[in-house]
Amino acid sequence: MSSLLPILVAAVGIVIVVFIIIMFIGRSSGGGGGGKRTRGRETILRNATKRLEQNPKDPVALSELGDLYYREENWDQAYKTYGTLCELGAQAPSEFEANLRRGMSALKLGLTDEAHRSLSAAKTQNPNHFDVVYNLGVLEFQRKNYEKAIQLLNQARVQDPDNVAALRSLGHSYFRMKKNKEAMNYIRKAIDLAPDDKE
Predict the structure, then answer these.
(1) Under a CB-based contact definition with an 8 Å cutoff, are residues 172 and 141 in contact?
(2) Which of left, alpha, beta for 46 (phi over 0: left; psi -120 to 50: alpha)?
(3) N or C: which end of the chain has fewer CB within 10 A?
(4) From CA 32, how far away is CA 35, in angstroms rounded?
(5) Are 174 and 150 in contact (CB under 8 A)?
(6) What distance lies between CA 151 and its chain's CA centroid?
(7) Which pTM value belongs to this model?
(8) CB-CB contact of 139 with 116 (8 Å)
(9) pLDDT in tens, 23-57
(10) What is the distance between the alpha carbons of residues 35 and 175, in angstroms, rounded to a whole number?
(11) Could you report the per-residue pLDDT of 179-188, keeping only the tens digit for each?
């Protein structure tokens, strides 16, 4: 048994060295993913551009571009691209996603009326989607429609009871309605769940 121990230690050492070499080669050759993502982006742009030259309303190309811009948080381009997809209506690969992402992009750009319009359209297509319901609640709060905000934010809270942002927004809405007891219940719960959240 003791004669196997040095062989075992040597084998483990070799495995570790080989593993380190493989990791080093993978990183130095660009296998970390950065190059792939750039090539993927360029491929998407090239293919979508080619398709859009033939048909400026190609729903697949627009969907791929919209997805790329949305992932990159290029809100202005995402908003425009999803706007074109929304105009296509049922021809879009996902009319709901086009409305949702156009609304979210508009929200990021501070275009509240457009965000409300798109998110409302998304809500008619999927009335219980958390992002739609929550963000419509936030928009209603901004518009000072506190009762409507409370209704929507409660709907979001049912879907995700521990969502700190929904609880906080719900607490603020109740506070604006001068329902301080309810407001404190939600704000206290939000603080308990995220004590480091400065908002």
Answers:
(1) yes
(2) alpha
(3) N
(4) 8
(5) yes
(6) 23
(7) 0.72
(8) yes
(9) 555 444 444 444 445 558 888 888 888 888 898 88
(10) 50
(11) 999 999 998 9
Count CA within 13 A, CB hemisphere, residue 184.
4
What domains are there in the chain, each with its CATH number?
A: 34-111 (1.25.40), 127-199 (1.25.40.10)
Tokens of 99: 């409305």
How many Cβ atoms are within 10 Å of 155's Cβ, its own excluded? 19
Alpha-carbon torsion (157, 158, 162, 163), positive or negative: negative
Distance CA 4, CA 11 (A): 11
pLDDT at 92: 66
Q: Where are the alpha helices (DSSP H) in the chain?
A: 4-28, 34-54, 59-71, 75-88, 95-109, 112-125, 130-142, 146-159, 164-176, 180-193
Residue 110 region by backbone torsions, left for phi larger than 0, else alpha for psi between -120 and 50, else beta: left
Binned at pLDDT 50, 70 and 90, residue 96 comes out as very high
Q: Which two tokens stand for residue 173?
A: 């809405």
